Amino acid sequence: xxxxxxxxxxxxxxxxxxxxxxxxxxxxxxxxxxxxxxxxxxxxxxxxxxxxxxxxxxxxxxxxxxxxxxxxxxxxxxxxxxxxxxxxxxxxxxxxxxxxxxxxxxxxxxxxx
Amino acid sequence: xxxxxxxxxxxxxxxxxxxxxxxxxxxxxxxxxxxxxxxxxxxxxxxxxxxxxxxxxxxxxxxxxxxxxxxxxxxxxxxxxxxxxxxxxxxxxxxxxxxxxxxxxxxxxxxxxx
Lengths: 113, 114
What we know:
The structure holds two protein chains of two kinds.
Chain A: E1 3-7, E2 10-14, E3 19-26, E4 31-38, E5 44-50, E6 56-58, E7 64-68, E8 73-78, E9 87-95, E10 102-103, E11 107-112
Parallel strand pairs in A: 2-11
Antiparallel strand pairs in A: 1-3, 3-8, 4-5, 4-9, 6-7, 7-8, 9-10, 9-11
Chain B: E1 4-7, E2 10-13, E3 19-25, E4 32-38, E5 42-51, E6 54-57, E7 64-70, E8 73-78, E9 87-94, E10 103-105, E11 109-113
Parallel strand pairs in B: 2-11
Antiparallel strand pairs in B: 1-3, 3-8, 4-5, 4-9, 5-6, 7-8, 9-10, 9-11
């Protein structure tokens, strides 16, 4: 079975500070991993994806994530937070060939001016 | 934008009434999904479809049924709505190109059952 855990349901950072959102996965086989962002009253937008190519993945809006098999982690980072980054972020996992995505419970990111 | 629309966008209904939500896509994707989003639970899969008339259950399928008679439309029906089905419902499609498997989401339907 596949599962994903997002540590911290709420994270606050100051504008210009490092953003770090944590995601750990559980999978018996190499997974596909995704980060999505949801702005208020909108659907989910794909930020980035890991599909067994490069372990450091770059996404939109300056975000990146690193796949670490030894730590079963796929943490999302951004060097310098902007006010526009305030949103909810979801990590998701899929085992290759399985049609289903399993989502974490989400992390709400607040940016402090 | 993966050409996904959902209707209605907002609906208020009474307990015990049937409700149908519609998802429409314009790009002939094979896989379509229905999720519900609730605080503290993230997104949970209700049902999905892997082709016309081919559907399967997700983790929270009780009280819901689906139908897909055309590639472009995936309908979610609540046969007899209950207050526990108050939620935001999202439709998604799975990308067919390559082997990325990423999903793209519609704008959502906010359903309130009173």
